[in-house]
Amino acid sequence: MTDLDRLSAEKYVLLTTFRKDGRAVSTPVWAVRDGDALAVWTASDTGKVKRIRRDSRVTVAPCDVRGRPHGEAIPGHATICDLAGTRRIRGLLKHKYRLIGRLSLLGSRLRRGEAGTVGLRIVLDQ
């Protein structure tokens, strides 16, 4: 089983991005497999999106809902998806997380509008 298989099977992963001064900032997020990458979804105005715009380096580790890791952190690089890519990731999340995923995505769309969230694709370093 590859790192991508293991991480995409997790309910939550700990996404770590890096500030300008190199300090790590970690956040638990939902994750789903998107072809040869791991995909996550977040509000477009979050700090993690701003940090990824500046520096695409990230690490991803399996974790619980509170962000406590229970596995090794894997390095990778993240890209911010366009509208079509974000829609595809929303669809993948709806499929994986079923009712709670659909409700969360609907609530977010009602609060923020469609452009208020973005998908992030993470290609793991091999």
From TrEMBL:
Superkingdom, taxonomy of origin: Bacteria
Entry-linked Gene3D superfamilies: Electron Transport, Fmn-binding Protein, Chain A (2.30.110.10)
Keyword match Oxidoreductase: yes
Molecular-function annotations in GO: coenzyme F420 binding; oxidoreductase activity, acting on the CH-CH group of donors
Keywords: Oxidoreductase
Oxidoreductase keyword on record: yes
Pfam families, per the entry: PNPOx_N
GO cellular component: cytosol
InterPro entries: F420H2_bilvrd_red/Heme_oxyg (IPR052019), PPOX_F420-dep_Rv2061_put (IPR019965), Pyridox_Oxase_N (IPR011576), Split_barrel_FMN-bd (IPR012349)
Domain Pyridoxamine 5'-phosphate oxidase N-terminal, first and last residues per copy: 7-72
Protein name as catalogued: Pyridoxamine 5'-phosphate oxidase N-terminal domain-containing protein
